[in-house]
Amino acid sequence: MVKMVINPARRTGHICPEVQGHFAEHLGRCIYNGIYVGEKSHIPNVNGMRSDVVEALKEIHVPVLRWPGGCFADEYHWKDGIGPKEKRKRTINTHWGGEVEDNSFGTHEFMELCRQLGCKTYINGNLGSGTIEEMAQWVEYMTFEGHSSMADLRRENGRQEPWNVDYFGIGNENWGCGGNMRPEYYGDLYRQCQTFIRSYRRSHPVRKIACGANGEDYQWTEKVLETAFDHGYGYMNGLSLHFYTVPSGKWGRRGFALDFTEQQYYQTLREALKMEELILGHGAIMDRYDPEKKIGMIVDEWGTWFEAEPGTNPGFLFQQNTMRDALVAGIHLNIFNKHCDRVKMANLAQVVNVLQAVILTEGERMLKTPTWYVFHMYRYHQDGELLESFLETGETGMEDCRIPDMTESVSEDREGKIQITITNASLSESKAVEAALTGRRVKAVKGTALAADMGGHNTFDEPERVKEREYQADRIAGEEGKIFFTVPPCSVLHLEVETESTTDKE
Ligand code: AHR
């Protein structure tokens, strides 16, 4: 019997909803066809946004959306995407497949999408090929409420009121597609540029995100902070981190989303678990500059990256999504929760039809991937208080690839309910757990589980082959504050527990 201890008396941090954020880039069929089909499409839409996709995203309570890239952002000129659509410039999406971009989805459309989703906005500026003036004008265009040339241009284009820009990224991957810069150079450029990213309305400050490291490039974090960190905390609200899960840890051997071995399954999860090591490593550097943890670690690109689905354009990064992806998602979200003192936002790459998508579309058809279900189960953690918890994990895997078998995180929501999420990576063993909630009586438990073979996935013909199902605990010992339950192999589990304090009622 695996022992689990939850201590509701110790709240160890606040879980920002934004750690369950998403990312939408002008890449392949993410924006066009995946989200935006235009007002005239036969696919049901509201102001051009697919209604089925918007509904599915609302169900997982998308808290924030990052746009327009990615590497696309490093070449994006926002003025190409405003004004009458027929007059918008046709540009080339040089980074992703050389497609002609008609710019029919621009700033106004992104803001409309976020309105429909009811989510926060995260805009990524172009520090790669754009100018600081261009970036500053974009912020003015979006957020200035008075009369200025940019704000009036916004009005001419049909939007009277300013929008809220909750987060603004100053560059993307500037160590790579964003300009191949050295960290000292980027740090200086960041200092300069952030000066002109103004918060025009005190009630709605624009939080500035600096471009952080690629995986374990600790040197980048160190040098950028050394150059750009300001002890008054005025310069920077967040520092990003990008880390993709590739099965062998090597880009040359990524394998396919559907066709993989048990060994590749465990190797993939071993790579996913590295996220914790990276948070601790970069976090330790951040702690030296920012011991009060005011600067958020913003993991604004994470997820699996396999070879593109055979028969699809390799530049479109379209991949299917299985239980292996669901485990990767569950593991990451548990890690983000556990480190909510530092991790303030994370954005899965990417929301529709690209990499580890929560939704796939084909013409007018749409399916929810196993990863979507994980977000659906974990949404209860959003805005919760992390509780101290411990799970006695063992090991699973194969001879040359042993990994911890389970991960967990526990929070208390605003109504006082305890939310538990657990992953079991083992492909063969279910795990019987005895969970003890110290100082509490257990009144009721309900939950759902997502369990299937490692390759289990949904198709457009069978869109509900893998889905979350109702789950019952084996036994409750209410007075003792104990729950006994079994976690199936290759699964993700969510339990919601109603409790009362043992000192409240005798
Ligand atoms: O998400 C796909 C790409 O991965 C993004 O455009 C880029 O930032 C990263 O390298």
Note the topology.
Elements (H helix, E strand, L loop, with lengths): L1 E13 L6 E3 L21 E2 L2 E2 H9 L4 E4 L23 E3 L5 E3 L5 H11 L2 E6 L6 H12 L5 H8 L10 E4 L12 H12 L12 E8 L3 H11 L9 E8 L16 H28 L6 E9 L18 H16 L4 E7 L9 E4 L2 E4 L1 H9 L6 E7 L3 E4 L2 E4 L1 E7 L5 E7 L6 E7 L2 E12 L17 E3 L3 E3 L4 E6 L3 E11 L5
Helix pairs in contact: 3-4, 5-6, 6-7, 7-8, 8-9
The structure holds alpha-L-arabinofuranose.
What does this protein structure show overall?
This protein is of the alpha/beta class and 506 residues long. It has a domain at 16-32 and 59-347: TIM Barrel (Alpha-Beta Barrel), CATH 3.20.20. It is built from 9 helices and 26 strands. The strands form 6 sheets. The protein has a 10-stranded mixed sheet with strand order 23-22-26-20-19-16-1-21-25-24. The protein has an 8-stranded parallel barrel with strand order 2-5-8-9-10-11-12-13, surrounded by 5 helices. The longest helix is centred in the middle third of the chain and has 28 residues, at 262-289.
